[in-house]
Structures
1.
Amino acid sequence: MELDYSVATIAQPRHCILRMPDAKYVKLSIMSSESSDLRGGQDKKVQEMSVAQQAMRTFAESSRQSGPGDLLQLLRAGNARTKAELASMTRLARSTIAQRVRLLMDLGFVAPVGTAASSGGRPPSTFGFNPGARIVVTIDFGATHGNVALSDLNAQIIGSRRGNRQVPDDPEVALGWALDTAVELLAEIGRGLKDVVGVGIGVPGPVEHSTGRLTKPGWDRFDVPAYIHQTFPAVVLVDNDVNVLAIGEHRTVWPTVGNLLYLKVATGIGAALIMNGELQRGAQGTAGELGHVQVPYNPDSGRNPGDVCNLTALASGSALATMLSAQGFPAETSRDVAALVRAGNATAIQATRQAGRDIGEVLATCVDLLNPEVIVIGGSLGESGEHLIAGVKETVYRRSIPLATQHLMIVPSKSGSNAGAVGAAAMVIEQVLASASIDAMIAAS
């Protein structure tokens, strides 16, 4: 039997980060002797086998609990299993396994997927996680766009619709459009409101994650979950748009990286931090608001000595658009700036490169303080080409301590336009498929 797992080596050669199915990471020690210190391919193979064995043992121990929810985690983590295999891995009685599999099948989360090889007699049935059992609705708002999507329980996008327009200051207008769009998408794939297990929303601006309320002009303290519940009586989770982008990027591009900093450079500037595989929101949900950080005067920047302003006012797409527009260039939004850069406009390229340097001044402190493995730069300006990132690298590698930058990667986002949808879906899935949530769902049914 094999257990599917994702593993990433970290600084110590005898440790790894194990990604569990609930998106949590566990640090494991690799029990190898001093004499087999990755000197060659055979040593590495032995070490990888040790990791796999410890991964299976760790996960089996964690699933040897009393509820069906824990059994579901085991099926989410690996391949389809027979009841005998599940009993062997969990050390539970086969009758207990049969009862829990039946309860999970009644909810649709587990389904028969075939038969295993027979050792004599009737081939045993195999059971696996059914990601199509429920639907997650995701709503990803940026300052100038709205993206509504549907996903299955593996955060795979199965339908989406994007609107490139200014998000209204009236939350009922914005959310009304999103909810109407979600209902239309459900109808297109033949699913109904009862199939929706949760709604994940990313919005620009600080969000109090525990309540789903945010501070944004027109939206201040608006009860987003209560409004959503009028259409979808399901779990509703609201977070900052950069946080859901970071979750999506981490899940799709960097699943084995434990420490990642995501920076969005678009109309505004914001960041999200993943440490040891977990998104860090801070005490009130405002972690990562780098756009509000004051950037001190730098003689190399070309600014006046008394010109001290925050990062958004200095280096965001909207700030660059204002500057370029004042010089006669057609730039009203960050996308216009990105278009000028891609078209080879020298003034736009120079301004973007300097914006990267200014952003690097702030990120250099973050690198020394947090020591991330990867910095991902996204947003309309972050994905416009190499000029912004080149400016960031120029400053970060010069100002941060050498040990912190020795293996640091600073890269553009690679997760595409659905990153926010994937992140919002994963945020919901982690909660609704948690063992306690599944056990409560079974008890209620």
2.
Amino acid sequence: MRIMNGTKRMLVVAALAGAAALAACNKAESPEKTASDVAQAQQEAAKDTAEARHDESHNVAEAQQDVLRAEESAERQDAESAYKVAVAKAEGDYKVAIEKCEALSGKQQKACKDEADAAQRTAKAEAEAHKAVAR
């Protein structure tokens, strides 16, 4: 029985100590302590906000650079594709012109082929020029 009474006494003491501790938690702080805590919380919030804005600015700048690089890459690919199409067209036009020249003979055929050669060179040079400008 005495052991039970000792245990009960310890439980009562522990409960009272816990209640006293909880009562201290609800105790109002002094106005100076409250003002200090508020000022510190405001400084921390301002610092966190400034860091978040800095991070946001950095992320936006990186995203803009990524977009710029992607646009430049797409422009280079477009220029290369346009160049290949122009060269293929020039070669196709040349083959058609040469076939038409085959219907001619002598000086007319030679002049026709020379004209086809010149047209092909001009078309390829224009394709090269457009490709160079796009870079």
3.
Amino acid sequence: MSYQHIFNRLRQAGLTEAAALGFLGNWQQESGCEPGRIQNDFDPYRTASRVYTARVISGVISRQQFGTDQKGYGLAQWTYVDDARTAGRKFDMYDFWSRDGRKLDNVDLQIDFALWELHHGYAGVWGDLVACTDLWTATDIICRRFEQPANNNVGTRYGYAQEIRKQIDVDAWQQTEEPATEPEEGGQSMTKTQAINKALDIARAEIGYPEKDNSAALDDFGAVGHGNYTKYARDLDRIPGFYNTKKQGAMWCDIWYDWVLVEAFGPEVAMQLLCQPAGSAGAGCSFSMSYYQQHGQFHLTDPQPGDQIFFTYRPGEISHTGIVEKVDGETVTTIEGNTSDMVARRTYQLGDSRIAGFGRPDWSLVSSVPESGTGSQDAAPAQQKPAVCCKVELPELREGDTGVPVERLQTLLIGRGYYCGGRSYGGREQPDGEFGPATTVAVKDLQLAAALSQDGVVGSDTWSALITS
């Protein structure tokens, strides 16, 4: 979350510089300034936080449960409930959110709720903060009288406030911030970087979302299945003429990327960014890649954030895709849908033979504010090199085999939802490189699903079914 944005909002509300920084220091200690974070969620993907937020929004967690579960939530980790369990700060937060209409984990909603609290239940705190010019004093007031944590570690909070002070422009609050949401009528107001970051922020917010067995709980992060049912296909199926047919139940990696752009910029602009006509076959990776190629927007090298990355696991077939999040030296980090049946972050070597290339949306369609220093980034794409066909040799594997080939086999099986007998780490099975009885059962189950002979031996037909399924 942007410290600058929170600081600007608090200053514009009438708080002094010291008070605004004091809130940032306190909220950094409480939640890392993350509006969707639940207490004790230290998972870097914030899976528990996303599940909790989605369940509140969908009604699975009721107002009473939200108000009384004593789980700190949001920027300030709001928690308090009275002894009668009928009133408290999370009850107030729930009611404020219900009246407001913005998402529960929207940072501006939570800033506005904090300001509402200061004017309604903490008027004395507000009065002291609007006159306070000393950072330590402001941090202490907020900690002891507004946050009221079990541990009044004011020194730590003050240290955070000092560090944040070095990272922001304390005079920027007087300027009007560039809008970063919907475009204005008649044009866009985002820079290219802002447009790409908007898409990436939406992609990041979906990390941890699993596919479902059916359409019963598509918005619930906690509902896990293996039937290729997702909220992404549901939402795009509702847009007339977006695809050639309904896509619910289909492989959804490309559907997910398309959904990200639709969420960010709307369906009409998204189709232009994707180079796709109305009623397209763009839910399929090979078709999606071909649309970029037809418009001269496909690149074999030099990926950039926001690019649509395409993968091939069998010569001549494009079978997976995702969004490039960042490029760092010799690696590219992606966010992908339908990877191990969920949305997840992945990292690859740039020379990985599975990478087929990169489709690059024309971000000028959603940005009219020029950027300095873009240099050759917007230059005409380099001439595409002729495609090269490769033959990949894979070993025949059976029970009793060990080593890297078995580990790769198990990685693919686990990614398809088959159990191979490995240990669980971080809630996910890890390959162990030993072709034991459990792996044999997994192979036979795959062979049954692919209508192959169930001999438990991984030969050419089984490898083909595993890689292309």
4.
Amino acid sequence: MALHLIGPTPFYEKLLRRGAFLSNWNLQTYSSIDSFSVPRDGSEWGGVILDADPQGLGTLNAINHLRTKAPWLPVIFLNGSAEVVDALRAIRSGSYDCLPVSIENEKVVPWVKETVERHWFSGLRKRLIKDGLERTRQLTTREKDILVMVVAGRNNREIAVHYEVSLRTVANHRANILRKTGSRNTADLVRIVTVAFMTELSECV
């Protein structure tokens, strides 16, 4: 998972760097939204963490600016001010959230991880179910659900437990997914799906 931290204050940067080290995240920091960039080759998924508003754009303008750069990434605001909360309520599409004001320091990193994963994979699943990604249109609903978990890095045992099926069933589903999407292996499958997801959302902006 890649986290892109924009306009970090020393406290949150230190907190998230420690979390990145312990959880093997790829954490990148940027002084402004203008300096933020992300590869579009499907090599990584994750989210944008906006600690402050270094350019004084305001919440809605900041979101619109970020959407032109990486519309597939959820945006998490660490500033839970009333202005941010009101702005996020006014947005009808996209994946945005803000850190609860009363959250304890030791719970910040787990909250960020869970929130980024929930928004990113929820967005991916919605696109799959709506047949938004061309290479996955032949998949069944169950295969699409399993595909989301594969992209999330879940192994066969975790998938089997989640859906209460046998390991053989999971293996069969994964084999069908590879065949139907024309993927050589799991790494190729993840790249294909991630790139398609990024491209499809980019074209909507």
